[in-house]
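The following block was generated as part of the benchmark described in Methods. Ligand: 4-nitrophenyl phosphate.
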Amino acid sequence: MKILMVCLGNICRSPLAEGILAHKAKEAGLHWTVDSAGTNGYHTGEAPHHLSQKVARLNGIDICAQRARQFVKEDFDRFDMIYAMADDVLEEIRRIAREKYDPSKVDLFLNALHPGQNSSVPDPWYGTEPGYHEVYKLIEQTCEKIIENATLQARNIRS
Ligand code: 4NP
C-alpha cells in the first residue's frame, strides 16, 4: 500500500499523519509507503511546524526530517490511497488533479474513524499548543483504525 496524507500547508496536520501512520504500520509489520503533501505551496521545503514536531516527539515519533511539498496530479499515479485532512483540501485535490482525479482513491481522513460523517481535522495552525495535542490524538486514533481495518481485511482474504 502506498498512502498519501494531504492538508493545506503540509507542515501541521499531514506531517503528523505521515509520521504516525508510518510508525504504526511498521510496528504492525506492514510494508507500507506513507508520504504527505500540501495543496498550497507556501511552505515547500520547510520542516514540519515546531509544535507538530514537539507533540510527535513527546509521543515517541520523530518527524523532523520531513520536508513540505505541494500535491501534484501525478500523485494519483503514485499512490493507492489519498487522504484529505479536510473538506477544503479535498476540493483542492480535485481541482489540481483534474483528469487524473479518481474518487475511488480519495477520502476524507476522518471517514476512516467515523465512516460517512465527512468531518475535517481542525487546523491547529491558527491556534496554540493544546490544539496540536488534540489534533495529534485525533490523527493517532484514525491511524490506528486504518491499521486495524487493513489487518482485518488481510485476515479475511486469507481465510
Ligand atoms: P496544515 O496547516 O494545512 O495543517 O499544514 C496550515 C499551515 C499553513 C497554512 C495553512 C494551514 N498557511 O496558510 O500558511
